[in-house]
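Journal club prep — side note

Before the paper discussion, L.F. wants everyone to see what a predicted structure for a comparable chain looks like in token form. Sequence:
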Amino acid sequence: MNQRRQNGWGYVVTIGGETFYDFGEAPPWFLDVFAERKAFIYALEILAQVLAIGYGNNGAVNGMVATIWGLAATHGWAPHFERVPSADNISDALSRGDESEAKRRGWTRVHTRQEEILHILYQAGSSTQYATASAPTELFNIAF
């Protein structure tokens, strides 16, 4: 399928030599938490920087960042984030619904539990207490 997606997302992850991917579209209800000062655009443009330093200047974004770092800290993970131009971003085509390169490379598509994950991240964007206390564990329980 190769169609233009609005508010699309995509990711590629390699674990133990096997590469997995997924993609989808963020629903309007999720984007509402970022409506203030166009924080969603801000989040997309500098997410790697915000994740690397651990905070930004928007509460909703900070809640999600706190959740991700809380999850990483709890499990001793050391993630690395960096911004790359769209042309060099291997998941950019996926975020637009184009999985031709992923199929060509023999990657395995997984089906992310988007609805559950986005509900947790939405709540984390609305409550720092939730973002730092419950959200990391809830995200882990969904994934594993």
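L.F.'s comment for the group: The chain has a mean pLDDT of 84. Keep this in mind when we get to the figures.
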